[in-house]
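Q: Fold this one first, please.
A: Sequence and structure below.
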Amino acid sequence: MFERLQNILGRWWTYLQERFPLVKNGLLIACFSFSAVSYSALLRGPIEGRTSLQTFGAACIAFLITFLFFLQLRIADEFKDYADDFRYRPYRAVPRGLVSLKELGIVGISSAFIQLGLILALSPFLAPLLLLVWGYLGLMTKEFFVPAWLKGHPVVYMLSHMVIMPLIALSATACDWLSAGVAPSQGVVWFSVVSYLIGLVLEIGRKIRAPKDEERGVETYSALWGRQNAVRAWLGAIWLTTLASLLAALYIRFAPLFTIVLLLLLTAAVFVAWRFWYHPVRQWATRIDLVSGVWALTIYLCLGIVPVLLREFAS
């Protein structure tokens, strides 16, 4: 019995390490969730009878719900990509039999029940947003019922699938403003726009590879669009994220300091892109992915967590 349990836990730990690294994903999701709730709290200002502890509790629930959303996204991808993985990437967890689609389905359904319980505990009015994200995730899994057309239009594929990001961002911020019983501020829209654009930065950044690392059957953007066009698209997403982030920061009066941080990030991004442009090796492709992650973490820190901490210390 103990050995069987140990085997099951070992298999799932290996799966998570390969397909959904807990530390890497957990850190970014925690930063995103706490930033969403903090940003919303900064927008609405203090509400009589609502304590910082309640806001922290809402942030913890937002983190758990969001973490499970991204786990469901990973599971949905396993179902969606199973045929291609079996054909081109047999080394991955599902094709090689580490875990089965049935087991993944059970985990996905169980996580949905956990989300529903958390939502009902915080505020039943959050349930429609939960259903909205689930609905869009279902459409993504089915490729919007036009899989062949989408596969032939990779830009539309990417842009349409990334809509899940602002929906998740809206549900995360709602853990604050909806549970507090107030209407969302216009700034919430900009936070959602930033989340959409950060999703593009992360998505493009992780699918830029050196020519020697391209795999048959793996549709990276560097293979689909060419290395230089992929780098241009990545930098374009970063510039758009910069503008949207500054607009979002204006709503919480944090733009001056944030501008300095963004300039440093832009310098790093341009430098790494330039190095990969002229030296397309794995080292610089990996750093594009690294800069994408640092970019996302820093922006979320500066749009919620850091301003809240500064105001707490100031008061």
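Q: Good. Now the second chain.
A: Here it is, same layout.
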Amino acid sequence: MDFTALSKIYGTPLYIYDFDVLRENFLAFKNAFAGRKALICYALKANSNLSLLKFLASLGAGADCVSIGEVRRALLAGIAPYKIIFSGVGKRDEEILEALQKGILFINLESSQEMHRVEKIAQSLQIKARVSVRVNPNIDAKTHPYISTGLHENKFGVEIEEAKAMYLYIKSSPHLEAVGIHFHIGSQLCELDPILQASQKIAKLYSSLLALGLEIKFFDVGGGLGISYEGQSTIPLYDYAQGILASLGGYEPTIICEAGRRIVGECGVFLVRVIGEKSNGQKRFVIVDGAMNDLMRPSLYQAIHQATFWGEKRGEESVCDIVGPICESGDYLAKNVLLPPCAQGDLITFANAGAYGFSMSSQYNSRPRVAEVAISAGEHKLIREREEFEELIEKELKCLL
């Protein structure tokens, strides 16, 4: 990939996505479940660029959404309503209403209170709402505490006994239909065993619900499979699929997998340009035009995105921090990495930035959000224009006192 040429055409900072890798990663999930009923619902929260979604839709992807905005994006990108699920712990009534009106596959319920709200809204529409219950299996996902979701201390889902009570209520309701069961224990998971423990636990609940006469068609195993940011071993998709299928015994529901990071993470890089260098005592800083508002993960999760230098090598490598222009000490993209002496205009890329990069970016310090570019078969195309300052203030100017 010619980063110098791309930087001249599109400027920096810049997100670049390899759609050939994206295709390969998505099809790997489909192939892992080949021969069994399965729906890969791409998790929009990882990266919701419309061109990227349209590309995945062409490959047969569904959508896992956690806001009505994501539902709208999925529909705009051409994902069929019957392939869209709506999750999230804080759905507003108006979001639930719109989702039901759009006829999506189902809504994942996070609490008994939410169940009653969905029922009331469905009653007002004189329809039967298709729902699933998110069950919290109380399994340690062995990941960063900020992205662990399957323990009692996390805000997501309900415990097994409450889930049973909810399903029995749904069975008797004229305005609710239980079509699925759901769990999701966390993100950036690199160990298979916790996922299989959760799957086995929820499969037992699923079996008991079938015995009670509920016709549950979808077994939603969530997502969260990790990628190798720092050389970690990743979960083989064949083992993942076979383990989940084995947990179900002889049952054959449609498996729903909410993959996000594992599909899009490795396909993206974040490209920045060096502004200069400075030293404070023995500490060396390489200052670049990208910042924590553009790539939040290092500051938020202490995440590692491998930095690669693209420029003339002028001397020996030494340890440095790569930092941005934001007025925060936490504004860094990498710490204690080896780089040669850097000059203004040199380029640096950060690997595995396709997931939770642009989607978590902000306009902090009145910094416009960056452009996004897709690469496919050696061709490049702009898929999101760089924001202009005027766009940042447009809505404020309309209300200026």
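Q: Anything worth noting on the second one?
A: The first helix runs from residue 3 to 10.
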